[in-house]
Amino acid sequence: MPARWIFPVLLALFLLSVPGSGRALPGDRIRSAKDFDSHGVDLVGRWAAGGCRDVVVDGSRAYILDGGRLETVSVLYPGSPVVVGSMDFPSLPLGLTESGVYLYVADGLDGLRIVNKGSGNPIEVSHVDMPEEALGVAADGDYIYVADGDGGLRIITFNYDDPRDPVEVGCYNPSGWNCVHDVEVVGDYAFVAAGYGDLWVIDVGDPHDPFQVGGYDLGLYSASSIAIRGDYAYVVYGNPALVIYDISSPDFPEYVATWDRSGSAEDVAVDDHYAYVADEYDGLRIISVADPSDPHEVGFYDPGSIGYDLAIDGSYAFVALNDDGLAVLDVSDPAHPGEVGFFDPPGPGDARDVAVAGGYAYVGFSPGGLSVLDMSDPTIPTEVGAFETDNSVYEVAVAGHHAYLAEMGAGLRVIDVSDPAHPAEAGWLPVAGAPWGLAVSGDFAYLAGGDAGLRVIDVRDPTNPLEAGFFETAGEADGIAVVGCQAFVMDRYAGLYILDCTEATPAMLQALSVARTQGSVHIAWEVAEETGVQEFRLYRTEPGDAVGPAAFTVPSSGRGRDEVGVPEALLGRAYRYTLAFVGRDGVESVLGSSDLEAAPPAALLLEPNFPNPFNPRTTIAFTVPAPGPVRVEVFDGRGRLVKVLLDEPLNAGPHVTEWDGTTARGRPAPSGVYLCRLQAGLRTASRRMLLVR
After folding, report:
1. 396 contact partners, CB below 8 Å, separation of at least 6
2. Fold (topology level) of 605-691
3. Domain regions of the chain by residue span
4. Which of 99, 113, 294, 371 has the fewest CB atoms within 10 Å, i.e. the most exposed one?
5. What are 261-296's pLDDT values in tens digits?
6. Does pTM top 0.85 for this prediction?
7. Fold category of 509-596 in CATH
């Protein structure tokens, strides 16, 4: 478990153990597991506080989106702010504004929430479902303006005295992919930040008929936030950090200047002289905008570089120091810790995690894999064994004779370390999400899988790990600790989840995939146990139709993994494939189903690359509707061409190409978000790809 999670988890355990406190703290609203997608794991309790997403101030009170919680904070005495009220959301709110007695919350996939500020705890009074994902919100008069992601700009009105029935009265959503991130309203104009790099100026003088009067396209950037001050709009992008526009003439906004630096800008606020840019990696940057044509940094707060992870064994601390390897500290005198040993691997890998067991330290590297160090003399850590992986190892746990690796883009890898000098792979299970946290307890491994939430894996047979349960948190599961059958999962944005994993058992059907290939359909599945299975049966129906006679029968192979190719049915129609098995007793049991969408014969289709995230290779599948010239390109986050993957005439139909993670000059491209663009004739399609080294 990463060291940064030790204190929050211990604090949560302490609070939950206080007599009379139960599983919830005052002001918490604990929801049942039915509000979350899960299997075999139940929500027991939750501390919803997490990363601060937004804040508004009204007089002596500040309202803060703190992960999955809305907090009311008295700032009557700014030096001593006091929380006076709170309410929890089941999901992860992303934007907040206020007007009068109401707060308006952009609650992601859960739409818009209207909340009465109240004198104590805020109270939700109304809710509006959005077509896509509410990412930002602004209010002006009787109208609420919602940045609804791919749903564009939505305009809502309601009766201020009775807000129970809000109604959408207008919408602006041009064709194409235009993810709307944020909105500000000044007078009769709405200023909208949309990715990639669009600033829209929308006339909302008549909210029932909004129309665009101006705009600016900076190129292939992903806008994340916008602030308006006077005649200027300040927009932050992943990189460059801050772009300034002159909006004195809303019909014709003009580019003014850019403040550029490497990093990942997430949010911006502006006063008369300064723009304050929140950078994901470099803390707070303070930019002088007294002269908007000459923005320049005047100050910053950087928390500094810290070790990625920490392990304690007796009187020694073992610290994974990123690209500086492993440091061994003597902490017998906690007031004067001192470095007594050091290990720096010869390769370029960064030390990401460390676990200590039985006189050995197990260090995960990114990239590189696992190093096994003999710590019998802590002053001279000595590598005695190593196991190379294709991807970065972000977390390491050791139990018995096995080391468990959370490998980015690959899932859970189990390594036999009974002979530390010769570690060898025992088993592997691909797992969805980005494995940021890992714990092993009893018969199970627990992965905090980023946006895939918690994944519970049965490792009683280390050579055949099986997924036994999952729980999808509201944000990104980032850290984990396990006590008995309870998992304490820290969500980067939505706080702490306390989950009961008592019912986690391997599902019979572990995986089922249905994919269209050249002229046929490929179906593959994996089951936890094939003993006692006589045969598998596949049914093909159109969604909504009753299941008819079995379309295909596949004898049991006994391997646990089976696949079959079947002829394509009618083109242009969607089908549902249902998998069942027949036991030795002749009884049939349905395992699951998967839908295969219709394949329009005249569509340009760019499939999601696989794997994603990846390191260093990823496969890109696409379909072109007609023969002709086809070009596949990769761009970086700043819109610069990285490499042309394909530029040649192709026949109509499906095709595959690959990116090996290098530039046009053959050099390794750095970690980051890239854009794959497919062009066939006058048609184009694009998708984002994540390279993690």
Report:
1. 353, 354, 355, 362, 363, 364, 370, 403, 404, 405, 406, 438
2. Immunoglobulin-like (2.60.40)
3. 509-596, 605-691
4. 294
5. 666 666 677 777 787 776 655 555 668 889 999 998
6. no
7. Immunoglobulin-like (2.60.40)
